[in-house]
Amino acid sequence: MYRFNALSSFILALTLASCTKERVEQVEEATPAASPTAEKEAADRAAPAPTAREPASPTTAGDWKTDIPKSITTPDKVDSKIGALEFRDGYPVGDTAAKIRDELDYLHGVSTFMNTIQAVSLYAFRKGFLDIGVNDNDVVLWSEMLEGRTLILTGNADTVYYMTFLDLSKGPLVFHAPPNALGVMDDMWFNWVTDFGIPGAERGKGGKYLIVGPGYDGPLPEAEFIVRKSRTTRVWVAGRSFLTKDEDGNDTAAPTVDVIRKSLKIYPYKPGGAGTSIGSFLEGQANSIGALSEPKSPRFVEGTGVYMNTIPPNDFGHYEMLNALVQMEPAEAMDPELAGHFAAIGIVKGKKFAPDARLRGILERAVAVGNASTRTLGMGAHPKDHFRYYGEDSAWWIPLWVGGYNFLNPPPMITKEGLKPFPNSGARKLHSRTAFLYTATGITPAMCMRLTGVGSQYLLGNVDSKGRPFDGSKTYKVSLPKDVPAARFWSLTAYDNQTRSMLQTPQRYPRAGSQNYPTPAATPNRNGSTTVYFSPQQPEGVERGNWIQTDPKKGWFTIMRFYSPLQPYFDKSWRMGEIELVES
After folding, report:
1. CATH number for the domain formed by residue range(s) 133-306
2. Tell me: domain 413-581, CATH 2.40.30.10, correct?
3. Distance between CA atoms of residues 409 and 400, nearest Å
4. How does strand 308-309 pair with strand 150-151?
5. 56-74 pLDDT, tens per residue?
6. Max Cα separation, the chain?
7. CB 314 within 8 A of CB 295
8. All CATH 1.10.3360.10 domain ranges in the chain, comma separated
């Protein structure tokens, strides 16, 4: 059978070939001969398209190699601050990889400290409350003003403070803001959530804020509340209320405290209650119709005279607090780029932070340099980033103006035509953020805007007119020209360099200003200017209200505050005098 099939296939192939040849000959006989021109056109069409350049044929053995720029190679030996680094034609050898591992851990440790000071600061603040028995949703109220025994970053004794941490882990909370306040809410990564009071949506009349935490997908009211959302389950609330004038025209805190106690409320939001219409429920826009929530006063805890420490640590404890915050709050609340730095040293959501002896030693060195760097920025001493308000010939500085409250771009100019924003630089002002949040607390646009008569503005002074840091054992003076540009009041407060909190002295309230509570008001000079002295003992002939007591064993700095600032502050037509050493 096989031989028959093979033979049959051969005969069939010959038959097909013969038929094909006869058909081609028939077609050629029926087709007229092509002209020479047609033949040329056909040849042109058949020819391959010319190329711009034909590849050259190799003529020598080395033509297949090209020159490699030196700039893209790595030498076999690199001298660095961590020692000699060795490579074998680009591959690390010897102990190079181990050196690089240690150096990267060190760099990530420094970056983590400097760029998470804001988050650890708030975590330490909440821990300070918890340590003295103040729970979330309780309110600490300084009814007789803040003073030096409470360690809080650059607070003042000019306004009545009240603070709390809202716990949104079980659902949204309602916060009733007192009238005539200056208040802010920030999340636990120190991102601004909202203002309340005069710069807030209710414009100082008092109002109901509904604060919604992460993960809540229930119904929200149509009206009744000012709704704000937070990326973290805890929200820091800080309020300042102004003193009240009594019938004799003196400043006093008691009536202000009464208003706060009566008007401030914190309670859970009930879906379907206030702000939800019956119609929205009947149309399926609300899941339920519930009873109206009953406003409840929080537990108030007295803060005046109470020792508490809310200052973040400058040692390895910084990393431990950061890890505790990472575990407490949602991963989505973190900046992924920033989280990558502390993930590289073992601080990861859902994992135990347990550095071995090698990494622990590296992080101990990293936190020392991180703190030194952060402190240098926070004292306005960095050789490049001075943040001088009046220029380099003045010591007064403020780090906010280069990047605004979010440390990106300067706050917009206020013109007759409206807001005039600055071009977007696209870069976070990291030194500005670190400098501000090492020294101060609270992120809000109201602290850095060019609107007159609203909010508060600040100037920091860390050195005298000769550029020397202040010595608590010496006497200094500063002159404030006539007509200080502050519609409500102005004040100077002295702070401890180490704690960045108010100086602890027998004076108790280390301040001088235009208000006469809790210390006498400063007395102006005959020409309308005002002179304030800083010294361990009250200088002879100087009024009590014109003197701030210093500690002879401590370095210090000061902050000048302008509440409801006026245009001469912004256009700098009014300029603060420099602090001068009084020679003995």
Report:
1. 2.60.40.1610
2. no
3. 10
4. parallel
5. 555 555 688 899 999 999 9
6. 136
7. no
8. 97-122+313-378
- Helices H / strands E in the chain, number of each: 11, 28
Question: Would you state the structure tokens that stand for residue 486, as one six-digit string?
Answer: 């502050």
User: How far, in whole angstroms, is CA 359 from its chain's centroid?
Assistant: 27
Among 341, 308, 309, smallest CA distance to 326 is for 341
List every span in the chain annotated with CATH 2.60.40.1610: 133-306
Dist CA 518 CA 158 (whole Å): 8
Distance CA 385, CA 408 (A): 15
Strand partners, 211: 173, 228
Contacts made by residues 384-389, CB under 8 angstroms, sequence distance 24+ = 385/431, 385/432, 385/435, 387/432, 387/435, 389/459, 389/572
Sign, CA torsion 111/112/118/121: negative
Amino acid identity for residue 275 in this structure: G
The string of DSSP letters for 119-143 reads HHHHHHHHHHHHHTT--TT-EEE-T
Residue with tokens 């601050």: 81
Report the CATH fold assignment for 97-122+313-378. VPA0735-like fold (1.10.3360)
pTM of the model: 0.87
Given a contact cutoff of 8 angstroms between Cβ atoms, the answer to whether 236 and 188 are in contact is yes
pLDDT band at 23 (very low <50, low <70, confident <90, very high): very low
Residue 333: strand, helix, or coil:
helix
Q: Specify the amino acid at residue 341.
A: H
Tokens of 335: 């900046």
- Secondary structure of 294-331 as H, E, C letters: CCCCCCEEECCCCCEECCCCCCCHHHHHHHHHHHHCCH
Q: What's the rounded mean pLDDT across residues 223-234?
A: 96
